[in-house]
From TrEMBL, chains A, B:
Boundaries of every HTH tetR-type domain copy: 11-71
Name by which UniProt lists this protein: TetR family transcriptional regulator
Keyword DNA-binding: yes
Organism listed in the record: Novosphingobium organovorum
Residues of the DNA-binding region: 34-53
Keywords linked to the UniProt accession: DNA-binding, Transcription, Transcription regulation
Highest taxon above the source species: Bacteria
Entry keyword annotation includes Transcription: yes
Length: 209, 209
């Protein structure tokens, strides 16, 4: 294998490849990318993909890791915050989920694809590192609020499906907007409207009366 | 083109091909099918796919039409029901959405795939025949309840994303269940729990207090 210097890798080349792959998936509404497009848009030699990630599957996995690590870190920090009420934590979390899907609308599809194409051991790693921590965070976020009488009794696992499912609709919204409403992009204004709407419905749905 | 008799087509062969394709997608958690598997499982000559649908893309489109026509017919009938309150109609609708995604968990992914692979004219047809009628039904279902003071003011388009997004999580739930909880299938018991949960959260989310 050549040294990365020989491939003309500038500092931050690995991160730039991931950023570019993310932008391509987001803009193109796809969970696949061509290495030639990645090379063209990043201005980097496509041999660097091989150098850093082995192959395209390795690149997809690295992007999954990048995106999920940011999410799990952020959720863990929220759960650990002192002095915040369960309601305040959940409100913040829901806002963040919508923002996250706006930034990485491909994430759910990418996760399911990588799990589907992985062997059992790798699927287990993804579940253990990313999905299970999310469930534990929900057990804590929801459990604390139920215990405090602020939330109605709610199954945290099922609630996780509700929240992420509703927020994830941003992903498929783009095609629907285009063909139903002749509106071509997911704008920040629409994201903000959807964030308020989601927060409103979900909080009213879980808060004790 | 040969006559369908020459291909050994029994009565109902077209419907059987669609039923079988639906079952393969549902069980395999895929939105693609191999014609050889379709032929094997249906017991029908794979030349019948060509006879009835032209090619695989035509088969996928016919399945989309079959599934969506059932949904739109059912929603239109619900909206038109006399003597039902907006709350009763919405409750019934939400139950039905969860049941539908349990039966055809591939539908959202299939719709997005077919739209993505269609020319503008065909994408417009799908939007006009299926997506737009759903939006109009939501405008009516939600608008009537808001006008009656039973529902809080709610954007029907955004609410459509919330409901279908939350219900659609059934689709991706299967892989998550398998790798996080060692539970291999979406059971009817889980569907029933998720249906109750979804109904509970969403109705509490929209009902005026």
């Amino acid at each position: 294998m050549p040294e990365k210097q020989d491939l003309g890798a500038p500092p931050g080349a690995r991160a730039l490849l991931l950023d570019t792959a993310s932008a391509i998936m987001r803009e193109g509404d796809v969970i696949d990318i061509s290495l030639s497009e990645l090379s063209l848009r990043s201005g980097l030699n496509s041999a660097l993909v091989k150098y850093y990630f082995g192959n395209k599957a390795g690149l997809l996995k690295a992007l999954l890791d990048r995106d999920w690590e940011a999410i799990v870190t952020s959720v863990d920090a929220l759960v650990a915050k002192d002095g915040w009420s369960p309601e305040a934590k959940l409100r913040r979390h829901i806002l963040k989920v919508v923002d996250t899907f706006y930034e990485v609308p491909y994430l759910n599809r990418l996760t399911m694809r990588v799990i589907r194409e992985s062997d059992d051991r790798e699927a287990r790693r993804i579940a253990d590192c990313y999905l299970s921590p999310m469930y534990r965070a929900y057990e804590s976020l929801i459990g604390d609020g139920v215990a405090a009488g602020v939330f109605r009794p709610t199954d945290p696992q099922l609630f996780y499906f509700t929240v992420t499912g509703a927020a994830d609709r941003f992903f498929s919204a783009r095609l629907v907007l285009k063909h139903c409403f002749d509106q071509d992009t997911l704008t920040e204004a629409l994201r903000d409207r959807y964030r308020e709407h989601t927060l409103d419905i979900i909080m009213a749905g879980i808060l004790a009366r």
